[in-house]
Amino acid sequence: MEIVSSQGEIIASSFTNESGQYVVPELPLDTYTTFVSTDNYLDQQRAVTLESNQFISERFVVTFITKLGSITSQVINTETKQPTQGATVTVLNDQKLVVVGFTDAKGNFTINELHPGIYTIPVTADGFTLETHR
Which end of the chain has fewer CB atoms within 10 angstroms, the N or the C? Predict the structure, then answer.
């Protein structure tokens, strides 16, 4: 988990103990956002305002991801309307690299086993300009 200040600075980063608890002592007064993430569970976030002499207890119930998704598409040359073989398909989530794939002879690609979320997909190929889709 990470705690981020109202100015966007990471104030604390920690793992939970065997009981799923964490403690971050002596935080200055501010509004914080707590981000909770773990493999194979949906990420969560929650904002909280810390006031004078306050102890805050937050409970996060994480949801196990049972279904993974896929992205399938085709890359076409906009001028010739022909498929583009060997284009590089990069899949990003929050600007972090998830996976890189390539188009086949018919310009098709499929990226499997993706967690639910919003992905940005820049596609590049020699001799072409970059095009990105969300």
Answer: C
Cα separation, 28 vs 9, whole angstroms? 13
- Would you say domain 69-133 falls under CATH 2.60.40.10? yes
Whole-structure pTM value? 0.53
Ranges of CATH 2.60.40.10 domains, the chain: 69-133
Question: What is the Cα gyration radius of the chain?
Answer: 21
